[in-house]
Amino acid sequence: MGDMANSSVDFHPKKPGMDGKACAEDFEVSLEELRALMEFRGAEALQKIQESYGDTEGLCHRLKTSPTDGLSDDPADLEKRWQVFGQNFIPPKKPKTFLQLVWEALQDVTLIILEIAAIISLGLSFYQPPGGDSEVCGNVSGGMEDEGEAEAGWIEGAAILLSVLCVVVVTAFNDWSKEKQFRGLQSRIEQEQRFAVVRNGTVLQIPVAEMVVGDVAQVKYGDLLPADGVLIQGNDLKIDESSLTGESDHVRKAIDRDPMLLSGTHVMEGSGKMVVTAVGINSQTGIIFTLLGAGDVEEEKKENKKGRKDSSVQFAAAPAKECSVVNGSCSNNFVTLLTSAKKQDEAVAMEMQPLKSAEGGEVEEREKKKASVPKKEKSVLQGKLTKLAVQIGKAGLVMSAITVIILMLYFVIETFVVQDRPWLTECTPIYVQYFVKFFIIGVTVLVVAVPEGLPLAVTISLAYSVKKMMKDNNLVRHLDACETMGNATAICSDKTGTLTTNRMTAVQIYIGDQHFHEIPTPQHISHHALELLTTAISLNSAYTSKILAADKEGGLPKQVGNKTECALLGLVLDLKRDYQCVREQIPEEKLYKVYTFNSVRKSMSTVVQLPDRSFRIYSKGASEILLKKCSSVLSRDGGAHPFRPRDRDEMVKKVIEPMACDGLRTICVAYRDLTADPLPEWDNEADIINNLTCIAVVGIEDPVRPEVPEAIRKCQRAGITVRMVTGDNINTARAIAAKCGIIQAGDDFLCMEGKDFNRRIRNEKGEVEQERIDKIWPKLRVLARSSPTDKHTLVKGIIDSTICEQRQVVAVTGDGTNDGPALKKADVGFAMGIAGTDVAKEASDIILTDDNFTSIVKAVMWGRNVYDSISKFLQFQLTVNVVAVIVAFTGACITQDSPLKAVQMLWVNLIMDTFASLALATEPPTEALLLRKPYGRNNPLISRTMMKNILGHGVYQLIIIFTLLFVGERIFDIDSGRDAPLHAPPSEHYTIIFNTFVLMQLFNEINARKIHGERNVFDGIFSNPIFCTIVLGTFAIQIAIVQFGGKPFSCSPLNVEQWLWCLFVGVGELLWGQLISSVPTSQLKCLKEAGHGPAPDDIMDEDLAEDEEEIDHAERELRRGQILWFRGLNRIQTQIRVVKAFRSSLYDGMEKPESRSSIHDFQAHPEFIITDSGHSIPLIDETDVDDESERSNHNHSLPVTLNCNNNAAESRVYLTRPAHVPGPPSPMHSFETCL
Question: What reaction(s) does this enzyme catalyze (predicted)?
Fold first, then answer.
């Protein structure tokens, strides 16, 4: 493995292996030693550390680093470490060269057909029939009299090849700039990811690429580890290593049981510190990545209509054994591995963009077994576009075939039947030239008919929007999310940080039997109670949470870390106490035990050992939950008196509810003393965190962002329903919702708690029923005390609902690790850039870099703009298509020659495709976009108004062109161009037709700017300089082509009068447009819409046929993003081990993993895998760290007692399927667990 890994060192300016030899002596441990160390796990790892280094401190000593103060931050030292141990950077895959992209563009079928036809035409034009009188071939060769003309026969073929080249270069350039943009986006995402390390005793946030071996990194819940390391201090740390091992159980990490932390794994619970031992290509993930680079089974295919690629890799790990690396879970036994391969192929894995690698986000290998992968559902717009393009393409194919057949039949009958000529051998090349000419005409009709500009328009429009959206604080990770957002009909938003400022402050406190409505002075509180409160808050919060001085004078102090904890620390400072002194007396290493916050506990507790060897527990959590565990409360003089259930109910009514109704979040702080003899059973948490003494209840305010009410008003005006889904108390949530304008007096709305919601949507068996959800969601505006599972159920219920005539398109915001399922399920997932965990960001489509709800409104505006831009382009393109195809078809059938020649058609195609897509796809959005309702999922791309415009303009253009074709020569008093022989010179007649056609398209492009029947088509035209440039540029090139194009373009120069007539007819398009918009669309009942999305039934049938298990098609789609580099790829490591184990016949001793009944076990992002056999997996949610939102304890062996709020009835729920319930487990079973 080691040798292979070095194959990618050439990416580095200096080779860590070689150049570092001299410096390596400075460290008492080598790169190879550290790499070998990271191969060990669990007890083996502990033993290895003890044998080689004594303990972790010994390892730190050898790495010349301090476990407490970290590295010195001396640039020379960091440079040396970088040389010896490498940098934390995985070299990106080389981008495709421009030539490769040109080659890919050449693969277009229509272009290949044109190339072949052009080459045949070229070859034949150089062929001279041997001697003899060519008269025998009849008037067929009529054009051959002029010697010069005969020699010019090659020009048409050459011109076609040249225009094909133009199209190819333009396409390749677009692809190239698209890829460049993605790499830019990628590096932006990479720069955004920072990690906390200790240097010189201070905690710094540094970009992950700057981490070096020897750094002491702070690890906390929700982190995605960027390097390998050894734990040197940990509190209740649990890691999800499924990305490396495929095991869904969370691995408990501790200094004395398993201190090895690996890159690419997720922290699911707890916190700690680790010393970094391997970075970049030397980390476990890097080694695997390098192996993949060394593996030669790479297949690259381009997905034309997407800026993203799907990815899977195959790697030959052992002779005659091929492991398929997919993003599913890896089993630890080779037979299961092989049997699960098919299943894994079917489960299209969650693929995401890396947040950390320098990989350009384009790991573009595609699984060979494509056949077994079920169809992925495209985004709303792409589904409609694909369907439309296929329909148009079929129509074009039929038209072109008919054109060719009619031309050939006419020629054969005219020549051999009517004129009764024999087929002479020497005339064969001339006849073949005719057939080639007919073929080229047919292909040209096809080229014009097929709207290959559609994917280009979509890409340009999306890429342009993505670039601009960055300025509006939307970092788009998946291109199609941008356009889907325009169709959004519902937004399920978090409260904390999105609707509120996430700057929490304690504003009320209940302590010593007194309720203070503002923070009191220390004199009003007994000394004992004050000291207890100060110590409880200072020690029982993450040491990473702190309050720093304001950046500028007069500003607010800076809150670092968890905002709720910062509010409590702020309270300590307001009470004129210093939390830092308390922490210095008892540093983090001296804490005896920490029960970190998770959603099963709904609280955080810290145990400290007092000088007399006894223990004291400090606890904090959501008040109504923690008060149930209190048996006494501090009185005014600081002594404790009993706290009975009825006292608790009174406190809820008189203190907690009034606070909550003011929109405050309530936190209870409590403590308990325990004796050292007998030693408490720390694992028996229920007994330990009980019989507490309540110190205080604090009311924390998180003010609503000032701009949010206006943004929500805009959403409601735009037909988007905003719902708040929060883990907070229902009274708090209702108060905030009213302030935001989500609920208004007089409206008919529902506000409910998670447990109430669950009770109403489930049947007697505890299964979620769509009909029940349908009764609730339309009126639901606030879901309080909700767990991530509730959020997922709600989002799924709204998306799957069919009660409205429009299917709903749902956007969701989330920030905690457990918002992952809901973010995945939603049509568009927004993650918070500031408060969001790495896991949430990976699961999302768009990252809000300012965590602000108003940015979502901007995303809606851009999304609608993308949709409109594409509709504008369609309206324009389809008009050109309809006219060009009909002209070419009828012209060919009546005059045996298309009035528009192949090269001219290609020029028209270029105008339509590339230029028009650039011009129309870059229109900036306006506020007016928010004044109409969303299009929704089922609305057609081409509305009746657009259809009216397409047909109306088509009629005008056809009348003009046919008039010019059949009576043009008399109007302009010129020679007729009809019935010209094979190589006749270009005629003025046909040039006028071509020129008029192009000018009509140019003016129609201005008409196409408006698609909703607006009269002023010039409105805002100067705000889009690209549009003006393209229209004027096209006009200039058209003049050049007509006046100087000559034979290659089949053009003859026109005089000023002819030009003025062409222009006049072109401008007529604008006047005709006004006439069309005067006809009310409602009167034209006969018009049909086009471009509907695929029918849901079609999709479902396909899905069920391909996979017996019912997999939600949107679920399976799961955002075809670039794959997170250490996810699917990391499976190799396990697989290689499995192969080795298999070959060394250890297989018999291996334990068989349980059979996986749920598709989610293969498909789920590791931290969301909640297998049906129900391991105890806590669901965590960071911003509501102290919300204690209702979450289910996923433990199949114990009934779960839920205490939702003050008057909650205790309900017992079993998460395993009762024996009497028949049927296979639903794939959603794990998410639909009763709460």
Answer: Ca(2+)(in) + ATP + H2O = Ca(2+)(out) + ADP + phosphate + H(+)
Residue found under tokens 């205790």 = 1210
Contact 676, 615 (CB under 8 A): yes
Distance between CA 942 and CA 965 in Å, rounded?
31
pLDDT digits (tens, 9 = 90+) for 221-253: 888 899 999 999 888 888 888 777 777 778 889
If you ran DSSP here, which 8-state letter would residue 415 be given? I
Determine which helix (DSSP H) or strand (DSSP E) holds 825, and give its type and residue range. Answer: helix 820-825
Which among 837, 823, 727 has a CA at the least distance from the CA of 782? 727
160/111 Cα distance (integer angstroms): 10
pLDDT at 824 over 80: yes
Alpha helical stretches, state H, 940-1007: 944-972, 988-1007
DSSP state of 600: T
Alpha-helical (H) ranges within 450-576 are 453-471, 479-486, 527-539, 563-574
- Cα–Cα distance between 642 and 633 in angstroms, integer? 6
**Rounded Cα distance, 770 and 772, in Å:** 5
Phi and psi torsions of 1050, nearest 5°: 50, 45
CA distance 774 to 613: 59
Cα–chain-centroid distance for residue 520?
48
Contact in structure between 799 and 825 (CB atoms under 8 Å): yes
A 10 A CB-CB count for 926 gives: 15
Distance between terminal CA atoms of the chain? 47
Kindly report, residue by residue over 681-708, the tens digit of the pLDDT: 888 888 888 899 999 999 998 888 888 9
Catalytic residue (choose from 108, 310, 345, 494):
494
Peptide bond before residue 678 is cis, with ω within 30 degrees of 0:
yes
Beta strands in 213-354 (DSSP E): 216-220, 228-240, 250-253, 260-261, 266-278, 313-318, 321-325
| pLDDT per position as a tens digit, 866-919 | 888 888 888 888 888 888 888 877 877 787 777 877 778 777 877 766 788 788
pLDDT the model gives residue 428: 81
Q: What is the maximum alpha-carbon separation in the chain?
A: 127
- List the Cα angle 499/503/504 in 5-degree steps: 105
Q: Alpha carbon 530 to chain centroid distance? A: 49
The number of beta carbons lying within 10 Å of the beta carbon of residue 545 is 19
